[in-house]
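This section describes the prediction task in plain terms. A model, or a person checking by hand, is given the sequence of a single protein chain and must write out its three-dimensional structure as a string of tokens. No templates, partner chains or ligands are provided. The sample shown here is typical of the held-out split.
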Amino acid sequence: MQKITPCLWFDTQAEEAVAHYTSIFPDSRVVDVQRFGEAGPRESGMVMLIVFELAGQEFQALNGGPEFTFNEALSLSVDCASQEEVDELWARLTEGGEPGPCGWLKDRFGVSWQIVPSRLTELMSDPDPAKVARVTRAMLGMGKIDIKAAEDAYEGR
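The expected answer:
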């Protein structure tokens, strides 16, 4: 059991969101589902909490009510091995959501994600500040990250 588990607060869409997320990421599953009982505070039988795993990482999804909504102050960052993985996750997570700048997006539930290719992280970690500056400028003009464009900027092309 991991010591710290992120909990995502939904109004009523926890079950739908978990089904969507677990359909996208390999090594994902629902671990446990707890429902509200007669004591409330929500309708008896409604999902209260779902414990689930995405790519082996445990999360919780709570149907807590409309009091709180998601914003970009917290995002889920996904390390991607290839442009194909970036493209697939971007397409699946922006369905009904909205693309943002620099690899960020909001899914249809309002959760913010960062879809980051490992290659971008490598390029941004180079000790040459001129190369990093070129990659940064290129990234700032992107929505979905384009690895080839980042590499071209790195090389000064």
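For orientation: Strands lie at 7-10, 29-35, 47-54, 57-63, 75-80, 98-99, 104-106, 112-117.
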